[in-house]
């Protein structure tokens, strides 16, 4: 599963919150009372449909696309060769068409633009596709301005790895750019517990001793990871379910192995209503159903869930999620949190 967590600033760029709250997008969104647009399964494309549904309901990215921010500056706009332009058009269609069903034909026909090894009609992994989409769109931004990427501004952060010698106290610090974090939820009961374990101090001893350049020998040392810069939307791959989190979107894999099965998504709209988006079938849902999934992918926004009787499709039995086997989570920092680069889940450097 993958968790996306809002903070309040993008270093040097417009903030994700500014983009999410922009009042006058160039493309007029369909009424908030409308359910999400269903996406046709064009042959093993459930993984693609589920990712597109969640990206379409990621507020800063959605509003950035609705304002044509990328395509208006992209030299490849209109050529069909830019992954971000393709995603922008897809998100605009999903949020502006007042239909019940659409087909993601254009993105599917250009799937190799996002990843050369993806093939039309073949089953693929949803999380892997999400990462390829993020990376491809980030690289497309750098072709316009090598110093600025709205994708990195939304999803990117910095992780510091520090090793401290227990003999002389010398420290070695390494900083890495990150787009996601992988957490193991084995024997934990919450995302917070898994995060604390991920950032727990590790003692390097025995056969795993650290070579200290200052001591010029192998020594016992302490290693610890910390978030140096928190992403505006933190993507966390979760290996097992953990229903104690505020959500705004989920991707569920239903099947007995990672190599086969079916993907579908749950998303929450601007009015707080939950929907199950199973390709072209979109039906009303609720928070209880989302967290009852055996394994799920999440997007986090607020604490409350609303109900409605609106539906534009019939939810198939597979949406019950009792045989689900993998997941992705996206979280959003609630408005009451203080600090620009901090989140309750993240140990900050």
Automatic annotation (TrEMBL):
PROSITE patterns in the record: USP_1, USP_2, USP_3
Q: What Pfam families does the annotation carry? A: UCH (PF00443)
On whether Transmembrane helix is a keyword of this UniProt record, the answer is: no
Its lineage reads: Eukaryota, Viridiplantae, Streptophyta, Embryophyta, Tracheophyta
**Entry keyword set:** Hydrolase, Protease, Thiol protease, Ubl conjugation pathway
Q: Which InterPro entries match?
A: Papain-like_cys_pep_sf (IPR038765), Peptidase_C19 (IPR050164), Peptidase_C19_UCH (IPR001394), USP (IPR028889), USP_CS (IPR018200)
Answer yes or no on keyword Protease.
yes
**GO molecular-function terms, A-Z:** cysteine-type deubiquitinase activity
Matches recorded under Gene3D superfamilies: Cysteine proteinases
Q: Which GO terms describe its cellular component?
A: cytosol; nucleus
Which reaction is the catalytic activity of this chain?
Answer: Thiol-dependent hydrolysis of ester, thioester, amide, peptide and isopeptide bonds formed by the C-terminal Gly of ubiquitin (a 76-residue protein attached to proteins as an intracellular targeting signal)
Q: What is its EC number?
A: 3.4.19.12
Please name the GO terms of the biological process aspect recorded for this protein, alphabetically: protein deubiquitination; proteolysis
The ranges of region (Disordered) come to: 307-340
According to its UniProt record, this protein's enzyme class is: hydrolase
Q: What is this protein called?
A: ubiquitinyl hydrolase 1
């Amino acid at each position: 599963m993958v968790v996306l967590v809002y903070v309040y600033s993008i270093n040097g760029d417009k903030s994700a919150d500014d983009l999410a709250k922009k009042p006058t997008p160039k493309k007029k969104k369909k009424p908030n009372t409308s359910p999400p647009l269903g996406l046709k399964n064009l042959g093993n494309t459930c993984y693609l449909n589920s990712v597109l549904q969640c990206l379409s309901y990621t507020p800063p990215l959605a509003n950035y696309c609705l304002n044509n921010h990328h395509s208006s500056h992209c030299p490849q706009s209109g050529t069909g060769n830019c992954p971000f332009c393709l995603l922008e058009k897809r998100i605009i269609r999903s949020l502006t068409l007042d239909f019940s069903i659409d087909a993601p034909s254009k993105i599917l026909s250009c799937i190799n633009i996002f990843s050369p090894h993806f093939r039309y009609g073949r089953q693929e992994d949803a999380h892997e596709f999400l990462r390829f989409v993020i990376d491809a769109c980030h690289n497309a931004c750098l072709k316009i301005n090598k110093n600025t990427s709205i994708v990195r501004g939304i999803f990117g952060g910095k992780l510091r790895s520090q090793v401290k010698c227990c003999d002389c106290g010398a420290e070695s610090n390494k900083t890495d750019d990150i787009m996601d974090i992988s957490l193991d939820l084995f024997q934990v009961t919450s995302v917070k517990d898994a995060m604390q374990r991920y950032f727990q101090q590790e003692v390097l001893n025995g056969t795993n001793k650290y070579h200290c350049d200052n001591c010029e020998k192998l020594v016992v040392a302490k290693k610890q990871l910390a978030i140096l810069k928190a992403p505006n939307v933190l993507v966390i791959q979760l290996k097992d379910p953990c229903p104690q989190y505020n959500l705004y979107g989920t991707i569920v894999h239903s099947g007995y192995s990672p190599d086969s099965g079916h993907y579908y998504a749950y998303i929450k709209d601007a009015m707080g209503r939950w929907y199950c988006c199973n390709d072209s079938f979109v039906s009303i849902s609720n928070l209880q159903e989302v967290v009852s999934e055996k394994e799920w992918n999440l997007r986090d926004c607020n604490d409350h869930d609303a109900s409605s009787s609106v539906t534009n499709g019939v939810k198939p039995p597979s949406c019950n999620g009792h045989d689900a086997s993998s997941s992705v989570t996206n979280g959003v920092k609630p408005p009451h949190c203080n600090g620009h680069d901090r989140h309750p889940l993240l140990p900050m450097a």
